[in-house]
Write a structure and sequence with these properties.
globular; 9 helices; mainly alpha; 75% helix
Length: 181
């Protein structure tokens, strides 16, 4: 599928924003910084995104779409499906720890009805044989948040492979045996 010039520019801006947000922090980044990194004018960035919140929402949406795509392509269901979801989420978290943490915080504290984290919880819930009150889903998401928090608190490196191992151990404790394969 060929990507048009407009979509290519949008992707270029979003890719640049990820890098600049990670380097400088969301609160210390302005559209001039993003435009410079993307090789476009500041007004071009504003043509695509009205403000930082819209850009962060677009980045989060892209993240969720990529995560869902990776999950579907994995072909895994049940516990293996949950592991594939968190593996992808952790890879992105390790690549962009500051940005992902900020986006999660903004998403958790927003009152947006279309909260993208609900999509991740929905993917997880689809892989659980029985979770009528959402408690297992909540424990799994809490384990992920705890893992990220622990790395920030203790200045641990965001090593994706090591974090995946840690998350898999927590999944084993929470779920135990595979629900179904």
């Amino acid at each position: 599928m060929e990507v048009g010039k407009k979509e290519l520019t949008r992707r270029t801006i979003m890719r640049a924003a990820r890098g600049v947000y990670e380097e400088k922090g969301v609160e210390n980044t302005n559209f001039r910084d993003i435009a410079e990194a993307a090789g476009v004018s500041r007004s071009t960035v504003f043509n695509y995104f009205a403000g930082s919140n819209e850009l962060l929402t677009a980045l989060c949406g892209r993240e969720i779409n990529d995560l869902e795509k990776a999950y579907c392509e994995s072909g895994h269901r049940g516990k293996k499906g949950i592991i594939s979801i968190f593996d992808r989420f952790i890879e992105d978290t390790a690549r962009y720890p500051q940005l992902v943490t900020q986006v999660i915080y903004n998403t958790i504290t927003s009152d947006n009805e279309n909260n993208p984290l609900k999509s991740i919880e929905g993917l997880i819930a689809r892989n659980l044989d029985h979770d009528p009150n959402g408690e297992t889903t909540m424990l799994l998401m809490g384990a992920y948040y705890g893992l990220i928090n622990h790395h920030h608190l203790y200045g641990k490196p965001f090593d994706g492979e090591e974090m995946k191992i840690q998350m898999r151990k927590m999944i084993d404790r929470i779920i135990g045996e595979p629900q179904y394969d």
